[in-house]
């Protein structure tokens, strides 16, 4: 710094200065120092061999930049064009900053002499293309910034010599396509930023060349769908950022398959279901941020095992429920952020062990302060648990409205923060008769605070919950609805209503009357609609009604005869048809051409690589 020489000065002065200081320095040294010039209006440092011409309205590289310069800052000027000669004399250039210029053209070979370059910055220029050969030979380059340009496409082998490149920035361009071999040769790359571009699909094949990639930032993209194995062969990738994908609605189960991430951010999306299956194979995940989405429920068993997960953030989603045991696979969870949601409670039973939890953000939810939240009160909560952020407030019951959990004290707590055991009423044993094929409904009206959930156990000991769907369902009011009763539905059903204060049960019997037609053969063996998952822990449903099917000889004979007749009829009809066909043959066209255009994924541009245009299907009538 002592020789730091600002502006337009006599270039001999620093040399003299040197002489005085070094008293008897060799002539050689004097000569080298003397050779260090500094361009007009630029700032130079002889010691670090750097020249800074930042914001000088220069239309081209100024005269007089010393050839031994290592660091050259030409940012915020008006450079437009780089030819093969502009930098050819700076053989020792290591760090070149060309950001904030108007450069639109880079001639091939423009850095052919600058093989020592380590860092090259083209941020905020007007580049539309990086042709093959522009960056060739730059084997020492570690940082390349091409962000904020007008790149539309990355061509094959554009970066092929950059074996040591560690950081590549190509965000904020208008990229619509990344060619399959665009990233070949980038053996050392650790961090890639592709955010804010016009990509409509993940460039899976191009990315697959980046075997050493550790961080991938893909924020602000209009990608609506992730294919299975979208990030294949990125085995070293640890951090993936897919924030601000407003069109992303689901994360299919295999979309992240093959990755071994520790941090995953999928925020500000349109995801509507918790992507539990997609996260299944990420056992080393430590930080997961799924904030700002439309996820409403997290069901028990959906999340699987994430034994290393330390932080889970689900801020500003639209969460209504987190089922008990939902986070039971998160054995190391230390921080949970579910603030700004629509949760009415957060039960202790959600966690494997609430004792590992250290920080919790729960503010901004319409909490019902009942017995389920007692575990968060100061006198009950695990000593290491801090409640961060906005303090959670009660929005019910009426007497606690607006109170923060932190300030709740006795006697309010024991008076109002209570739950009541479910009660099923009216308590009469139901006996319902239904006709085969007709709907049957068994009611179970349960009361309690919080509202109990109802589970029905069938005579076959199948559990039907409000989530079950199919022929047998539980209505929101607890009624069991069988859409079309079958004979084997007969028996004793048990309704179990439970809430955190306890449970209650009620049994009901159903008798399904046979319609007494020949059809009964079908019905006696039709169990295909049944889920067969359950093992009873509660009732031992005893089948009340013996499903004896009265069979008599006459019925069998008649139906056999009917069967034979109709079989013969069909055979004859077929023969007639064949006959007619063979007569008419030759006059009919037996080939059909169907032309269709496959549906395009949002933004047609993505299809550049694929063979586009209508497809043809040829159908032959035999
Ligand atoms: C490079 O050289 C060309 C022609 O000699 C000139 O037009 C251009 O302005 C130069 N570029 C820079 C950045 O100096
Ligand atoms: C590239 O870097 C290595 C070590 O960092 C250095 O020895 C070599 O001279 C550099 N290559 C060039 C062409 O400067
Ligand atoms: C990229 O997207 C922006 C905004 O949607 C649009 O204005 C621009 O024309 C697109 N560019 C290309 C090359 O498609
Ligand atoms: C998100 O999904 C909802 C429901 O499918 C849809 O109405 C909405 O337009 C979507 N938002 C965006 C930004 O695509
Ligand atoms: C996954 O990552 C973890 C830690 O980041 C590492 O210990 C483990 O070996 C990796 N597994 C595979 C299969 O690469
Ligand atoms: C999680 O995502 C939200 C939304 O993008 C963001 O505000 C928050 O800072 C993120 N948290 C962390 C720890 O990155
Ligand atoms: C319902 O009635 C049965 C027997 O009549 C009785 O054992 C049971 O406790 C009653 N349940 C409730 C909730 O009143
Ligand atoms: C119902 O309550 C009994 C006793 O109160 C308890 O043993 C049982 O586990 C409860 N069942 C459920 C499903 O909560
Ligand atoms: C009918 O019952 C038999 C024996 O119980 C069973 O093997 C078969 O799969 C059943 N068929 C259907 C359609 O359920
Ligand atoms: C059903 O119970 C038996 C014994 O109680 C057990 O071995 C089996 O694993 C259970 N099946 C399921 C699906 O839970
Ligand atoms: C069901 O209960 C009956 C009578 O109480 C008993 O004989 C039978 O073994 C029980 N069945 C099962 C599967 O528990
Ligand atoms: C079913 O019928 C058999 C034979 O007729 C009889 O032994 C059995 O007790 C009956 N079971 C029931 C539940 O009625």
From TrEMBL:
- Tell me which InterPro entries the record gives: Ig-like_dom (IPR007110), Ig-like_dom_sf (IPR036179), Ig-like_fold (IPR013783), Ig_I-set (IPR013098), Ig_sub (IPR003599), Ig_sub2 (IPR003598), Leu-rich_rpt (IPR001611), Leu-rich_rpt_typical-subtyp (IPR003591)
Locate the transmembrane regions by residue number. Answer: 556-581
Name of one Pfam family that matches: I-set
Query: Is the keyword Glycoprotein assigned to this protein?
Result: yes
Q: Main localization of the protein?
A: membrane
What this protein is called in its record is Ig-like domain-containing protein
Provenance organism: Crenichthys baileyi
Kindly state which keywords UniProt assigns to this record, in alphabetical order: Disulfide bond, Glycoprotein, Immunoglobulin domain, Leucine-rich repeat, Membrane, Repeat, Signal, Transmembrane, Transmembrane helix
Membrane-protein topology: Single-pass type I membrane protein
Q: Span of the secretion signal? A: 1-37
Q: Where in the cell is it found?
A: Membrane
Q: Where is the Ig-like domain?
A: 422-511
Which domain of life does the protein's organism represent?
Eukaryota
One of the record's GO cellular component terms: membrane
């Amino acid at each position: 710094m002592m020789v730091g020489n600002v502006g337009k000065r006599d270039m001999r002065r620093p040399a003299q200065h040197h002489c005085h200081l070094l008293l008897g320095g060799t002539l050689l040294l004097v000569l080298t120092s003397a050779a260090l010039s500094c361009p007009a209006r630029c700032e130079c440092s002889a010691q670090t061999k750097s020249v800074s011409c930042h914001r000088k309205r220069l239309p081209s590289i100024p005269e007089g930049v010393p050839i031994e310069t290592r660091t050259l800052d030409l940012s915020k000027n008006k450079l437009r064009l780089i030819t093969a000669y502009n930098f050819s004399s700076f053989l020792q250039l290591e760090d070149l900053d060309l950001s904030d210029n108007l450069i639109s053209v880079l001639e091939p070979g423009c850095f052919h002499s600058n093989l020592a370059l380590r860092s090259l910055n083209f941020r905020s220029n007007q580049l539309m293309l990086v042709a093959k050969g522009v960056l060739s030979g730059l084997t020492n380059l570690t940082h390349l910034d091409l962000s904020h340009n007008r790149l539309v496409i990355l061509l094959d082998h554009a970066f092929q010599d950059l074996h040591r490149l560690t950081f590549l920035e190509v965000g904020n361009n208008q990229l619509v396509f990344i060619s399959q071999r665009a990233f070949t040769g980038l053996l050392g790359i650790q961090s890639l930023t592709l955010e804010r571009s016009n990509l409509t699909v993940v460039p899976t094949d191009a990315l697959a060349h980046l075997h050493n990639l550790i961080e991938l930032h893909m924020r602000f993209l209009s990608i609506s769908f992730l294919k299975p194995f979208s990030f294949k062969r990125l085995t070293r990738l640890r951090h993936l950022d897919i924030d601000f994908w407003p069109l992303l609605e689901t994360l299919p189960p295999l979309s992240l398959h093959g990755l071994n991430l520790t941090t995953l951010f999928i925020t500000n999306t349109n995801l509507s279901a918790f992507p539990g299956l997609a996260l299944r194979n990420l056992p080393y995940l430590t930080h997961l941020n799924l904030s700002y989405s439309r996820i409403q429920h997290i069901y028990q068993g959906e999340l699987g095992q994430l034994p290393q997960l330390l932080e889970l953030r689900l801020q500003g989603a639209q969460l209504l429920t987190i089922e008990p045991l939902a986070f039971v696979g998160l054995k190391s969870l230390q921080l949970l952020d579910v603030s700004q949601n629509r949760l009415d409670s957060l039960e202790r039973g959600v966690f494997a062990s609430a004792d590992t939890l250290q920080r919790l953000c729960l503010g901004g939810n319409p909490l019902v302060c009942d017995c389920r939240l007692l575990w968060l009160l100061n006198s009950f909560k695990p000593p290491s648990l801090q409640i961060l952020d906005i303090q959670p407030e009660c929005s019910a019951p009426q007497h606690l409205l607006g109170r923060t959990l932190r300030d709740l004290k006795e006697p309010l707590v024991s008076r109002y923060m209570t739950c009541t055991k479910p009660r099923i009423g009216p308590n009469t044993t139901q006996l319902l008769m239904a006709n085969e094929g007709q709907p049957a409904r068994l009611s179970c009206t349960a009361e309690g605070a919080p509202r109990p959930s109802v589970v029905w156990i069938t005579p076959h000991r199948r559990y039907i919950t409000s989530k079950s769907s199919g022929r047998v369902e539980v209505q929101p009011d607890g009624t069991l609805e069988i859409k079309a009763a079958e004979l084997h539905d007969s028996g004793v059903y048990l309704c179990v209503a439970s809430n955190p204060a306890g449970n209650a049960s009620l049994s009901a019997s159903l008798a399904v009357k046979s319609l007494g037609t020949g059809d009964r053969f079908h019905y006696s063996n039709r169990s295909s609609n049944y889920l067969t998952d359950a093992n009873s822990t509660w009732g031992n449903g005893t089948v009340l009604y013996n499903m004896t099917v009265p069979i008599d000889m006459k019925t069998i004979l008649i139906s056999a005869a009917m069967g034979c007749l109709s079989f013969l009829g069909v055979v004859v009809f077929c023969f007639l048809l064949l006959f007619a066909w063979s007569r008419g043959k030759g006059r009919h066209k037996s080939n059909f051409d169907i032309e269709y255009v496959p549906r395009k994924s949002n933004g047609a541009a993505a299809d550049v690589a694929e063979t586009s245009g209508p497809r043809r299907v040829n159908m032959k009538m035999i």
